[in-house]
Design brief:
Blueprint (H helix, E strand, L loop, with lengths): L6 H19 L7 H10 L4 H25 L2 H5 L3 H20 L4 H41 L6 H33 L13 H4 L1
Helix pairs in contact: 1-3, 1-5, 2-6, 3-5, 6-7
Length: 203
């Protein structure tokens, strides 16, 4: 209220400075095992660095604002207690409320951890799928360099099966891409020329 004559702005900024710092700091100082686990999960999201930056700036601004106010109080300034008073204010108005707001409900914890596990599992499965595909391609390339005529019957069957699988996989991937484009944009991409139906490739 001392920075502006507009009461609406003063009330709005007061509400921000009262509620925002403890709310953001509560994400950074979990004091329960459940809160620490949830923080570890949330730390992998893009929002966590934003929370850290906003919390640090609000802490800095709250410190400056309280320091300016206490420095203007004659008794506090004369007794050199400005920094002590500011630290007490930071602890009382920000740190303690942040500690009280950190408890996490069991349902929220279970759901967020389950979601993080699903994402991690999907990433690992995708990496494994790509690794298998790369190993298959490498083995097929090695046999192709030897020459089909120089391969044993079993190696020929293996190479032929890999080639058929690759062609079918390309067709399936193109169809999935077309379906994804249709789902996202609403535009259908027809793939009339399927590789499996191409006589040259089939031969």
């Amino acid at each position: 209220s001392q920075l502006t004559d507009n009461r609406i702005v003063a009330v709005a900024f007061t509400a921000i400075l009262v509620l925002a710092p403890p709310s953001l700091v509560s994400f950074l100082i979990p004091w329960s095992p459940a809160g620490m686990l949830l923080q570890k999960v949330n730390a992998r999201t893009w929002a966590f660095p934003v929370i850290i930056g906003c919390a640090l700036y609000l802490l800095y601004y709250a410190f400056q604002l309280q320091w300016a106010w206490w420095a203007a109080q004659p008794v506090v300034a004369e007794t050199n207690l400005v920094y002590q008073q500011v630290l007490i204010g930071m602890i009382g108005f920000i740190i303690i409320p942040a500690l009280l707001w950190t408890p996490v409900s069991s349902d929220e914890l279970v759901e967020q951890v389950r979601q993080a596990h699903l994402v991690k599992r999907y990433e690992l499965q995708t990496q494994a799928d790509i690794a298998i595909l790369r190993a298959t391609l490498l083995r097929a390339q090695e046999k192709a360099l030897i020459g089909f005529a120089n391969l044993t019957v079993q190696e020929r069957e293996e190479l032929a099966a890999v080639m058929q699988s690759l062609v079918s996989g390309i067709d399936r991937t193109l169809k999935e891409i077309g379906q994804t484009v249709k789902t996202v944009s609403g535009v259908a991409l027809p793939f009339d020329s399927i590789l499996d139906d191409n006589e040259d490739i089939r031969d």
